[in-house]
What does this fold into?
Amino acid sequence: MFIEKTDKETILKPLQVVIGIVERKQTLPILSNVLIEKVPGKIRFTATDLEIQITTSIEGRTGDDETSAITVGGKKIQEILRVLPEQSKITIDVKENKAQIKSSKSRFSLLTLPAQDFPILSNQLDGANKISLSQMELKKLLLSVQYAMAQQDVRYYLNGVLLIVEGNKLKAVATDGHRLAFNAAIIQGNHQKQEIILPRKAILELCKLLTDSEELIDLEFSQQQVKASFSGITLITKVIEGKFPDYERVIPKYENHLEMNRIAIQQALQRAAILSNEKFRGVRFVLTEKNLSVISSNSEQEEAQEEIETDYHGEAIDIGFNVNYLMDGLNNINSETAIFSFGDPNSSILITTPDNQEFRYVVMPMRI
It folds into this structure.
């Protein structure tokens, strides 16, 4: 017997931890599978896509010294367990190349592939630097920049987040060439500068798996791999090779500042976005003495205009932006106030907050 009667939730929970990186259609069929290993006192679950590997485990039956392993279709077994009634007891038995899942009057027979063929990522963490911070801090840091990552850009180094360990700070930067987000968190110790680019998929998985708790996460950095250990989960990912753009040159320093209620400007942008061009999603900011007009129009000559009273006293500015980019930044700020800093109509806009001196969000202008 591979797994004797146990609650379906006991197996479903670790499966859901590792399943995020499993693709249904793979060039290698075994990559659609999850490796389930029975070792003394534990049942271990592992999934990989050859770039990222996630492992977690649960306690096995005490006194059970049997060691065995199978690989089985990850999405299939997850779906089967998910639709079984609550508190169902399940048994998994392995016969020849099939895994038999039994629960009450339900029977499922899934094809297995040899466990020895499952590709485990080799350890490339020699001489790795190690840092620790709370899961909540890291989650907050990643969420504050991840929306600015590129998706499938030919400049592959943009399809991820640049992490910089320096002194007592962990800095995170993401850009897709049209906007850039930067933030930093305090970490223990005083570390030499090290830069690595974590791939998009690893960032999204970490955002999903990290909790809002003070529980620590240990991060080990080498030039080839990063290993994250937290809450009984181990995530190992390859890093992206390549030179990330010089983000410090992209972040402007301006004299023109405008403080606004974040919710008020968010809602004005939401309303204006309704009549923006579906393809280009442009809105105009027309800034005059004590007033901001947010204007959008589309190819059908329809127009929306929102007026917001401000304390602005600088030069008049008329500048266009992609409304989705502005919304992304504002949606990921916790502060009640957003500070908009402007240059001239051809310069990017800088969004900061009074609550977090580190956070920077830069959006390039667009012609409308």
